[in-house]
Amino acid sequence: MEVTPALLAPVPHQPGVYVFTRQGVPLYVGKAADLRGRLAAYAPGNSWKTDMLQEADGFRVHTTDSELEALLLEVNWIKVYRPKYNIVDRDQKSLLYIGITDEEYPQVLPTRIFAASGTYIGPFVSAYVVRQTLRALRKVFPYRCARMPIAESHKPQARPCLYFHMGLCAGTCAGRITPEQYRRRVITPLIRLLEGKTTSARRALDPTHRALLDEVLAHTRVLSVTEKYANDVHELQRVLGLPRPPHRIEGYDISNTQGIEAVGSMVVAIDGEPALSEYRKFKIRSLEGKSNDIGMLTEVLTRRLAHSATKKQQGEDEAEREEWPMPDLLLIDGGKAQRNAALRVVRRSGLVIPVVSLAKREEEIYLPGASGPLRLSRHAPALHLLQRIRDEAHRFAIGYHRKRRTKRMLQ
Q1: pLDDT in tens, 84-114
Q2: How far apart are CA 251 and CA 266, in angstroms?
Q3: Closest CA to 43 of 79, 5, 17, 11
Q4: pLDDT digits (tens, 9 = 90+) for 57-69
Q5: Are both 1-89 and 229-410 of the same fold?
Q6: Is the Cα torsion angle 393, 391, 343, 297 positive or negative in sign?
Q7: Is 1 exposed, middle or buried (0-12, 13-18, 19+ CB in 10 A)?
Q8: Where are the domains positioned within the chain?
Q9: CB-based contacts of 144: which residues, under 8 Å, 6+ apart?
Q10: Is the pTM of this model over 0.70?
Q11: 31, 26, 32, 120: which is closest to 81 by C-alpha?
Q12: Which bin fits 156, alpha (ψ -120 to 50), beta or left (φ > 0)?
C-alpha cells in the first residue's frame, strides 16, 4: 500500500498508536507523539519498512491522551497480537521489561531476566523509555526502594529513607504501610496502568493521586526523543547506503600515553541510544610500550570479533567465550588509515559488517571503497548521530586510560 496525503488527512496530530494490517490482521504496531507526523515517514520515497508496506492493505490509528499511554498501549498490543514485523530482527538481549517481583513488598525495576514468579510488562527496546517511565510513575505510585531493608515486623523506625520524604516511597522501610495496603494502593493500580488499563488504574486511586496521575500523564515525554533517535538511524542508513537500518552501532577508540597503559573502548548504540550495559573495555596486550594506534585498533577489533560466535578460547582454562550480538555498523574514531585497518580485521574474520570512520578535524566520513571522504552538513542528523557515538567512545577510552595511569603512578 501507499501512505498518501489523502490517507493521512484524517489522522490527527496527537499521541497514539498506529497499526498496519492485512485483511484486518495486524502486521506492525507503532506508537507516536504525533500520529500524522510519524505516519508521514511511511510515504513513498521516505519509508524504511518497504517489505511491510508491500504486504499491508490498510492501517488504523488509536489516539491517547498522553505519550506515556501510547507507549504502554503499544507494548501491550504487541504482546497480544504478536505482529509479524514487530518481532523480526530483534536481538533479545537488547529488550527490557518492567518487572514487579512477587515479594511481601514487591519491587518495581527494569530487567532483562525473567524470574519464575512476578509480573513483567514489556518488552521495551529503549532503556531510556523504561527509566523515564518508572521515574514518572513513581511520583504517583511510590514503590519501595530496593536498596532499603524492610522494617522488621512492620515496626516504625526512627528514620524513613530519603525517598519517603520526597514522596517517592510508601514507607516500607519504616513500617509506615502494611503489605496489604502497599499492594492495594501502589502495586495493583500500577500494574493496571502498565497493562494499558488507565481508567481502572484511576479508579483505584484517591482524588489527590488521581489528579497527580493526570498531571504526570500530561507532561511526561517518553516518545519524542526516541522517535528522533529512530529517525536519525534511518537517515544514517540512507546517507551511508546501508542495506538495513543500523540497529546496533559499535564505536571504537584507542587511548594511551606514548604506548603506556594503552587501552581500547567499545561503546554501543541500539536504535541510536547508548546501551551502557553493552560497553566493553580492552587492555592492550600485544603492543604495551609501543606507540602504534593502528596495531592497537587491530588487536581490539580482532578480540571483539572473536566473540561473534560461541567458541572455545584457546588458553589456560579453555573457558568458553561469551557471545556478543553482531553490529550492523562499526564506527572508528579516525581517518582513512583507521578505516582500512578495521576493514582488514573484518575481512579476515569472514564476517560482512559495514565499517566507517569519522575524522575529528573536518568531521569527514570515510566509507569502504570510496575514493574520498563524505562530507555532510554540520546540521545533518546522521552526522550528529555518528558524532555522539564517536565522542562517547573517546570519553570511555580516555576515562579507562586515566584510571589505569593513576593506578600505575600510585604503585
Answers
A1: 887 644 444 456 788 999 888 999 988 877 7
A2: 6
A3: 5
A4: 999 999 998 888 8
A5: no
A6: negative
A7: middle
A8: 1-89, 90-222, 229-410
A9: 105, 106, 107, 150, 169, 170, 172, 173, 182
A10: no
A11: 26
A12: beta
Q: Which residue has the cell 507494548?
A: 75
Check if the beta carbon of residue 263 is closer than 8 Å to that of residue 341. Answer: no
| Distance from C-alpha of 8 to C-alpha of 37, rounded to nearest angstrom | 9
Going by DSSP bridges, is the β-strand pair 119-124/108-111 parallel, antiparallel, or unpaired?
unpaired
| 246-303 tens-digit pLDDT | 989 999 999 998 888 999 999 999 888 888 888 999 999 987 768 889 999 999 999 9
β-pairing, 248-257 vs 329-333, is parallel
Please state which CATH number belongs to domain 229-410: 3.30.420.340
CA angle at residue 289 from 286 to 290, to 5 degrees?
A: 75
The cell for 243 is 542495506
Q: With beta carbons less than 8 A apart as the criterion, state whether 36 and 8 touch.
A: yes
* Ramachandran region, residue 322 (left: φ > 0; alpha: ψ -120 to 50; beta: rest): beta
If residue 111 lies in a helix (H) or strand (E), which one and from where to where? Answer: strand 108-111
Q: How far is CA 122 from CA 71, 73, 119, 187, 373, in A?
A: 10, 10, 10, 17, 42
Fill in the amino acid letter for 275: A
Spell out a b/e string for 173-212, using b for 16 or more CB atoms within 10 Å of the CB, else e: bbbbbeeeebbebbbebbbbbbbbbbeebbebbeeebbeb
Cell of 95: 529488550
Check residue 45 and give its pLDDT: 55
CATH superfamily of 1-89: GIY-YIG endonuclease (3.40.1440.10)
Determine which helix (DSSP H) or strand (DSSP E) holds 410, and give its type and residue range.
Answer: helix 381-410
- How many angstroms separate the CA atoms of 204 and 320, rounded? 51
Sole residue written with cell 555518528: 386
Give me 1's grid cell: 500500500
Nine-digit cell string for 215:
498531571
